[in-house]
Write a structure and sequence with these properties.
single chain, 9 strands
């Protein structure tokens, strides 16, 4: 299989511009961003704050609409152009192909931690019991105390919430991982667990595109590093 056949995510000449309506101004964050992420590969987006790393991840996920260029994602049924996809296609992409782990947990009140983690599995048709069992195994691996599993994660500390967030992102073993500082709030032991989870996902033939400010984590995981400053300067 050629490298082209292995490509799962292709970012081609992508730019992002924001409109500040209150000031009638626009801000070009980056332009000309281009790279690919292949099966079995972790691509790291590098550069200082403000160069558009998180914005590009959100564009791949379909939260932000790229101003220019094309973002192609290979799924089980074909290649989807995220920049021109219908909302229904984006929803299906997130359900069956892309996990996104942000820096912050977004959860509804009164939903327990174990159900927050199990939800992606249930969306794929897994029974509630099996989903909870697999969620419990993931929470255990991330060293979240069992006494917390039936509580709302909105009451947790930042590090505990992040572990719930990570468990939710990894539990369904989807082929594409988008990772925005997943280890930022974690101690050394739990950082090591997350590194292992990413390695396992890549070894299964998935791909990861991530932001890691922790140099040790970045150097451990990166197959390639994309310097976003190259594209920010062209904005």
């Amino acid at each position: 299989m050629t490298r082209e056949e292995n490509v799962i995510v292709a970012v081609e000449d992508v730019g992002k511009q924001f409109t500040i309506h209150s000031r009638n101004q626009t801000r070009q964050v980056f332009s000309g961003a281009s790279f690919t992420a292949c099966a079995g590969e972790c691509v790291v987006l590098d550069g200082p704050s403000g160069v558009g790393k998180s914005s590009l991840l959100r564009a791949i996920y379909g939260n932000y609409l790229a101003t220019t260029g094309r973002i192609s994602v290979r799924t089980r049924t074909g290649v989807l152009d995220v920049t021109n996809a219908d909302p229904e296609d984006i929803i299906e992409l997130r359900r069956s192909a892309i996990s996104y782990v942000s820096q912050f947990l977004r959860a509804l009140p009164r939903i327990t931690a174990i159900d927050v983690v199990a939800e992606p599995l249930i969306a794929l048709g897994v029974s509630r019991q099996e989903g909870r069992d697999r969620a419990a195994a993931m929470l255990s691996r991330l060293n979240l105390a069992e006494s917390l599993w039936l509580l709302s994660p909105l009451t947790f500390s930042g590090g505990e919430q992040q572990r719930v967030n990570i468990a939710r992102g990894f539990v369904a073993e989807l082929p594409i991982l988008l990772l925005d500082e997943p280890t930022a709030s974690l101690d050394r032991n739990n950082r090591a667990v997350v590194v292992d989870l990413i390695r396992e996902a890549v070894d299964r033939g998935g791909c990861a595109v991530g932001i890691f400010h922790d140099q040790e984590v970045r150097e451990t995981l990166a197959n390639r590093i994309v310097d976003m400053r190259d594209f920010a300067m062209a904005a």
